[in-house]
Amino acid sequence: MASVNDLTDFYYNELYPELKILEAERKRVKSKVTLVLGSIGIATVSIAAVIGKNTGFNDTLFFILFAGFGIGGFVYKFMIKDYTAEFKQKIIRPLIRAIDTDLRYAPLHHVSESLFSHAKLFTQRIDRFGGNDHVKGTMDGINLQFSDLHAEHKSTDSKGRTSWHTVFQGLFIVADFNKHFLGHTVVLPDSAESTFGSFIGNWMQSNNYSRNDLVKMDDPLFEKEFVVYGSDQIESRYILTHTMMKRLIELRRRAGAKLYVAFSGTHIYIAIDYNDDLFEPKLFSSLLEYKAAMAYIQTLHLATGIIKELKLNEKLWSKH
Length: 320
What we know:
Blueprint: H1 4-14, H2 16-55, H3 59-99, E1 104-106, H4 113-119, E2 128-139, E3 142-156, E4 162-176, E5 184-189, H5 191-206, E6 213-215, H6 220-225, E7 226-230, H7 233-239, H8 242-255, E8 258-264, E9 267-273, H9 290-304, H10 306-309
Helix pairs in contact: 1-9, 2-3, 3-9
């Protein structure tokens, strides 16, 4: 698999002619978007100011501001869709092929909701599910797929107003684990102990009735980062060896975001909570900036590097 340095060289050396063309297109689209969104913003604020002056701040005023924001978001997506599609075809697709020619890229597809639900990493009801930038293939004999995902649930207040709440947004990875598990083990960020302290946090974790049994691990560093629930204590401890715990700690550090992991059936499921759509072009940042390029490259390298990072291709996890 290509290294981060190899991919950085490929980005600037092999893709530079396309980057220059796209950078000119980015500037053109940015100017148009700024002008149109600025006009929508001025119109919305002007209408809201007139209504607010005559009627005071009420639900109608809130609706106008909300509608203006919604229209602006819709117009923004419409205006950048061609530029976004061209960016993915000319930049993201070649980057993925540079990592491994066996990987297939479908920018409009995503990991299925059934796989997301099967992982049982999140207990909230999912009412809206989407994503994009699906990558799928085989590396070192291991089947791998990942994509951006956005899962939300809906709530309605006493006045009948609907709100959408993000359950998960980020990178979701599914890979062969080459082991048939009878139970289900999840590794979650330890938010209870870090927020409420060890005594209350541990009590909350032990009484989490939406999960299987709490599995206490004997690695203090791992316990500080994660909490483990499993339907089979012995199997969970068999999976989470000291080596695997160290690898998950290192993976969380490299990801720089909350890490959720599930082991079930013959797969490992990994959700990295970036709260962002990762492979979209940044309209207000130059494509030629090193920081912007590294964001795409490091995310792709992290996702495809899971196999080597967690040693999923080693004989230790061969099927029995």
